[in-house]
Amino acid sequence: MSFKPLKIGKYIIEKPIVQGGMGVGISWDQLAGTVSKEGGLGVVSAVGTGYYQDKKFSAKLVADRPLSEANFYSPEALKEIIKNARKICGEKPLAVNILYAMNDYGRVVKDACEAGADIIITGAGLPTNMPEFTEGYPDVALVPIVSSAKALKIIAKRWKKRYNRVPDAVILEGPKSGGHQGFSYEDCAKEENQLENLVEPVVAEAKEWGDIPVIAAGGVWDKKDIEKMLSLGASGVQMGTRFIGTHECDAHDNLKQVLLNAKEGDIKLMKSPVGYPAQGVVTNLTHLVEERKGPEIKCISNCVAPCNRGVEAKEVGFCIADRLSDAFLGNVETGLFFSGANGYKLNEIISVKELMDKLTNGE
Mean pLDDT, to the nearest integer, of 231-252? Predict the structure, then answer.
């Protein structure tokens, strides 16, 4: 089966594969630029850009960490990342993933538009006012992430009424995805919430709004999985963890090694200061947090609104900005390593080109 291109707004993605946005520093210019160059949709993560190029674009640091959301989500760094990704992929479509739960969400969306992003992807909450922040950029395609047909209906209804537009595509994320889930702990395990059971109802809802393309995500690993999702009615897939196993992935080698070493059973759901369960590799940090012996929580970067300036971080036992940043810096003792449920299958580091060939032509 040869794959049809994926259309998002005015953009055509030659291979219907979207690379998941992974912060801090897992999908920046090298990975996103190369995925777009190879015919997929490369996605820059806007999370933790203040760490880019050794914090060069972070105007103020405290304890060697970017101070507050103004520096943690550095506009100058985001512009530089997109500029450098463009050097790799040229005019091919390029997306930016911006969490709805982040502090300064609206400002970061505007930063991405100014920097030349073609597509904005937003999850971690229901982005009912997303179009507000892209006024003046009619060509920027908007793609919310949902976990149910109901969530898509709420977003589409609100957008249609307020802004007279609907999403240009929607990413449907099942509970096998890496990082934050759109379900409670209990709901992550339910049969009706598994990705293969969510695709058809979400595709049906998408048709009600003018055939919005649905991109299936969470646990998609190989060509067979892609074919299955397309046969259920999806127009494309999103894959994050599999791209960590590439030479071009911006992550530290130690982070890649944590995934390569992970075995089945090492990847679990954990509590997060964001308020949603998060999926990642059980590591030294996990054990420290369980014993309440984790690193001190200082809330230097003020990254996400639901954390309430470190209140929730103290509740769950770790600061998500600091621990993801430690993973980016290669610190395996105190780093937090997000992964999709199938991350234990990662067993080699190959080029993005080789990976895209495997995904489109089979192993």
Answer: 97
